[in-house]
Structure formats: C-alpha cells, structure tokens
C-alpha cells in the first residue's frame, strides 16, 4: 500500500473561549419533563393534531437525554439502538395516513419530485415528557415530530426550504434542542420547548470561506462538550461552541460562536482528482479528542479538537486518501481502528489499488490493515459503498450499492458470508441483540440471526414496506422506525 504522509492544514482557524457555566451540565434542576424543558401537552386523537398548550411547571430532571440521539447513536458511530426485537413484527402505524411526504427539488438544471426519506435519514428517538418522541427529516422539506407509540404529531412540522436528507441529532445534554441540515443552504438549531418548533440559530454554507462544491448539509451533527461538530458540502469542517442556557422565560436559548472551521481538502488531494467534488457528506465521529471524517474526494482525516475549550486551535493529525468518494461515515472501534467504505465512481488507479472497504490503523506509518474491493459496476457505472459499516463482535458488516451485504472478519479482512439483496442498498446495517436488520430496494426489511458470526446468518423474518428502504432505521425498546422512498414513515414492532 502507498504510504501517505500525515499533514497539517493551516488557515480558517480561530480560537475559542471557555463555555459558560450554563453549558456545563445540562439544564438547571427547575426544568420540566425528562430534562428536555417544558412539558408539551398533546392534543387528542387527530393524527395531524398539534399541541394546544405548553406547561412550564418546574420539576426535578435528569441531566442528560435518553434515546437514540444521533446517527449511529454515539460519538464513535457504533451504537444502533435497544431491543428486545419482536419475533413476529408487523407494521404498527404509518405516517402520514394518506398522501406521502413529497416535494420538488432541483439538481443541476433538472427538477424532480422526491418522496419519503432517503440516505441517511435515520430518525432520532428521545424520551421526553413520558413519551417516546420520534424526530426525522424528509423529502417534503420538513422536520416531523411524532409520538412513537401512535404516530401522531406532537409538534407542527418545521418547514425548511428544500429536502432534508441527513439524520436528526437531539441534544445529548438534556437541552430541548434539535440539530439538522437541509439542502436550502442552512444547518439549524431548533428549539422544541415551544408550541411551535422554533429556529434559534443557523449556519449558512456561505458563512465561511473558502468553499468548494455546493451548499447542502447531509451529515448528522455531533454534540459533545458544549460543541457542535459538522462537515458540510461546502467542503468545510466546522466546530461551533453552542453556549446553551435558559432565559428568564424558562425557554432554552443558544448563543453559538463558530469556534473553528477549516477546508476539508488540500492541494495534494485536488492534484489527484479531475474535479472539485470534495464535499463532506459523512457524519463526524469523535474518539479520544480526535474528530474523524471523510469527503467526496476520498480523503479520510483526523483532527485533534481536544484543546478547543482551552483556546487551542485544532490541527490535523491523520491523512489517508482512498482515491474515490467516501460518503459513508467513518466508524471507530474500541481499539481506535477505522473502518471506511468508499464508492467506485471515478475508477481511479488509487481506488483500484486501495479497494472500497478498508480497515485503517491510524497509529501505523502505512495504516492499511486490510482491504476488500467492490468494483463490479451497475448500469450507471458505479459500485462500492454508500452505507455506513456496522460492528458486531468479531465482524464488520458492510452493505454495497450492488446489493452485497458482507460479514467481514475484523482481524484479517476475510469475507465470512455474503447476502445478495436487490440494490442499491444504501441503508446502513443495524445490529440489535444479535439480530442484523437490513433493508433492500424492493421494500423488504430483513432480520438475520448473528448468534454465530462464522456462518451465513439465517433469516428470522421479513417485513414488506412500500418503496425502496434507503434510510437507516432507528431501533428503540424493540420498536423499529424507518421511512421509504415511496413517501411514508413506519413503526414496526
């Protein structure tokens, strides 16, 4: 394998200040509900009903939120939800009841109708006010807030100006805040402790420079230590000091500062490409004070952000070029190893050599531990990986555009077993209680038994949904929440 030197990128940096005391440990002990602010009183049986009133009665609270709060659940992007899963699941409810969630959006010079939820599209699930809230963005350009038990609206939709493709993040420290980007150029912080969800702050893709490619926001924000970490399709990596607090009216407030930003590309990367598509579409992972992410130019990076609170500017500490587009999120295991899935679109010599599924050891001069190729193209001339890998025991599970779902030995890269499903398979594999959940583009959600990782896992059940399952499901308390490209969102249990 080619040795790629570690580099440091200068520019775009500015120092930060220490977060205020109000942002150190979640909301004060006088907040209501489950640590997410004032209690929302739901309306009655109408599936499209919205809350009529908001109570601000004080009550003791837990300092942190409970649920599946961001894409892949935790900072290393390796948590998938909680069981127990049903042995005979069925569709419990569908949202909306009738007409699907659709809108028109323009790509280049062409306008198309987009429906449902797509890549990555994992909903957030959070316990709040004794209810299970399910929050997700969709291709109708809206954020939806549903009761996980009934599918009824808990808050009115929050409308953005274009598609919402990424996965919602709920504040992990108990503040009633939601973080999400849209194709309308903006990444937003939204308060949910009001009768109507309210935008408190936005970061526009053009607020920083230099930028390359476009102004979408696909990555799921990561909130840790009072900071928001997010990559944009403006090809910049951003760290935002949130400065969360509560106002005199008892409502949550933020006063964000863009503490750091830097280009996610460098001259060496651009010299190896025939284009400027270096957008960051993956979600940032954070382990040991290092933020990990990759871009559409295939550049995998680690940035040391551990000194932000002390005013120390982040610096890049790892660089590796895959040779082609990496939109899947970098996954970090408990030994600090990285698992990366790349697409096969440009067909570069580098990508042919490196492969499309790679385990990297960032502590080695040559970081490649093993690699697996996926270069059999579809009718569009592409192959490789859009789905984020899942870790389970001694295997890493990877789904490919062409429909191959592989269980790969984490130690040596040997393929232990393969499932062949109708592609494209962009839904990231989900493993809960030793059961692999994997959707396909014919609308089947499959469950496989992973009790023995060395054998081809037997199928336990399937549930058929209308439309291609492109989004990653959220699983909480054994209930599965997922949308499809047909236009609807479903609860299965």
Q: Roughly what percent helix?
A: under 10%
| CATH class identity | Mainly Beta
Which oligomeric state applies? single chain
Based on Cα principal axes, name the global outline.
globular
- Strand elements, count: 41
Give, in spatial order, the strands making up the sheet with the most strands. Answer: 3-7-8-9-10
- Helices, by number, come to 2
Tell me what the CATH architecture is. Answer: 7 Propeller
Distance between the ends? 46 Å
- Main sheet attributes: strand count, strand direction, barrel closure: 5 strands, antiparallel
**Class from secondary-structure proportions:** mainly beta
Mean pLDDT: 90
Low-confidence stretches: 1-22, 24-62
Question: How many structural domains are formed by the residues?
Answer: 1
Beta-strand share of residues: 35-45%
CATH superfamily descriptor: YVTN repeat-like/Quinoprotein amine dehydrogenase
What's a concise summary of this model?
With 493 residues, this protein is mainly β. It has 2 helices and 41 strands.
Structural commentary:
With 493 residues, the protein is mainly beta. The protein has one domain (21-492): YVTN repeat-like/Quinoprotein amine dehydrogenase (Methylamine Dehydrogenase, Chain H, 7 Propeller), CATH 2.130.10.10. It contains two helices and 41 strands. The strands form twelve sheets. Strands 3-7-8-9-10 form a five-stranded antiparallel β-sheet, with no helix packed on it. A four-stranded antiparallel β-sheet has the order 4-41-40-39, with no helix packed on it. The chain has a four-stranded antiparallel β-sheet with strand order 11-12-13-14, with no helix packed on it. It is globular. Mean pLDDT is 90; it is low at 1-22 and 24-62.
